[in-house]
């Protein structure tokens, strides 16, 4: 979800921030579960300004950090099976 939001909204982000950002979405009640067949889709409510504000707060408080080196960010690749199969609880 984090990779999609970062790409759709053009938000600077790294994979290491994913868990933190998911907690922010949950804290702000920005994730709405939807019905799906064989998957667990969600609707994410929010806009770029909100997401950038959360990231700014996380960076200022040092909860999340920029990587020490500059350069391109390499996101882990996921195959279609990993993306569409429901998570096991």
Topology:
Blueprint: H1 2-9, H2 18-27, E1 31-33, E2 42-44, H3 48-60, H4 80-84
Antiparallel strand pairs: 1-2
Descriptive overview:
- The protein has one domain (2-84).
- The mean pLDDT is 83.
- Strands 1-2 form a two-stranded antiparallel ribbon.
- It has 89 residues and is mainly alpha-helical.
- It is built from four helices and two strands; from the N terminus they run H-H-E-E-H-H.
How would you classify the helix and strand content by structural class? mainly alpha
Task: State the end-to-end CA separation.
Answer: 18 Å
Spatial shape: globular
Radius of gyration: 14 Å
- Characterize the biggest β-sheet: 2 strands, antiparallel
Mean of pLDDT: 83
Oligomer: single chain
- Count helical runs: 4
Binned strand content: 5-15%
- Side by side, the strands of the main sheet go 1-2
* Order of helical and strand elements: HHEEHH
Number of strands: 2
Tally of separate domains: 1
Helicity range: 40-55%
Question: Which segments are poorly predicted (pLDDT under 50) over 5 or more consecutive residues?
Answer: none
Concise description?
The chain is mainly α and 89 residues long. It has helices at residues 2-9, 18-27, 48-60, 80-84; strands at 31-33, 42-44.
What brief labels describe this structure?
two-stranded antiparallel ribbon, mainly alpha, 89 residues, 4 helices, 40% helix
